[in-house]
């Protein structure tokens, strides 16, 4: 099965980089969003600080947000959704390949195609804007490790969203809702620390917070080593939990699929 996963991931990777214009646009759009955020927060913070963020640390926060969002939105949600909407899922059921594993390989393969551009964009942003450095070499290493969990987390959330197509027979509204929740509750739009306490509690109770707030908190030293390891453990738990939930929901929804009237 590992060879099949690798083959599917490779195909998705090649398909992603084949459409260079779309790929480049997604990176540039993220870059413009980062520039807009830098302009706004520079005006708001000035020489002071907000929510424990001074200007240098906010620059680091926004650059990390650019990196994580570029990765998180690089997967092909519509490829998964269209397999359900177009009825191709009925063909998938006849194949000796696990549907969830196959979609995960394709999704993560597509995400991998964005890694070089995301890293390059991040390096350019660091050189131009000179953000705060990591709290320590260990914090930098733990931040890099935490970023790896964006791949299974992004797939898990997107997979659950696309499974809704079995019921709704539409995906556009679901995608908008999913993307909005990720952007808001990850802290990409507004740092979690600036939200009301009750809203912070809701954010930390969901997996979205680990896309931006977790790596930024580790990088800036807003949590100690034990706290950083706890956040990474939470990421791993969410990745496993989303996979299991997706599997359980699939088993129920697939019963509704009709193949040749059967």
From TrEMBL:
Q: Which InterPro entries match?
A: ABC-2_transporter-like (IPR010390)
Keyword Transmembrane in annotation = yes
Ranges that cross the membrane: 23-46, 58-75, 107-129, 141-168, 180-206, 226-246
Q: One Pfam family, please name it.
A: ABC2_membrane_6
Keywords from the UniProt entry: Membrane, Transmembrane, Transmembrane helix
Question: Domain of life, per the record?
Answer: Bacteria
Please state what the protein is called: ABC-2 type transport system permease protein
């Amino acid at each position: 099965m590992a060879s099949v996963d690798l083959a599917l991931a490779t195909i998705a990777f090649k398909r992603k980089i084949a459409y260079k214009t779309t790929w480049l646009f997604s990176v540039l759009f993220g870059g413009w969003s980062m520039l807009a955020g830098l302009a706004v927060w520079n005006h708001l913070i000035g020489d002071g600080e907000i929510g424990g963020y001074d200007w240098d640390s906010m620059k680091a926060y926004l650059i990390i947000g650019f990196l994580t969002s570029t990765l998180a939105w690089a997967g092909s949600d519509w490829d998964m959704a269209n397999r359900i909407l177009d009825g191709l899922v009925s063909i998938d059921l006849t194949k000796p390949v696990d549907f969830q594993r196959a979609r995960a390989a394709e999704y993560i393969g597509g995400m991998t195609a964005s890694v070089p551009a995301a890293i390059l964009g991040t390096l350019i942003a660091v050189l131009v804007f000179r953000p705060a450095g990591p709290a320590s070499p260990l914090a930098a290493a733990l931040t890099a490790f935490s970023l790896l969990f964006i791949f299974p987390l992004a797939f898990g959330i997107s997979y659950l969203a696309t499974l809704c197509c079995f019921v709704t027979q539409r995906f556009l509204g679901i995608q908008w809702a999913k993307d909005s929740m990720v952007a808001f509750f990850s802290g990409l739009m507004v740092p979690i620390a600036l939200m009301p306490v009750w809203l912070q509690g809701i954010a930390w109770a969901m997996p979205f917070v680990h896309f931006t707030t977790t790596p930024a908190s580790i990088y800036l030293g807003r949590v100690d080593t034990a706290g950083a390891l706890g956040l990474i453990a939470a990421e791993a738990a969410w990745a496993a939990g989303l996979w299991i939930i997706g599997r359980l929901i699939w088993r129920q929804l697939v019963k509704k699929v009709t193949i040749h009237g059967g």
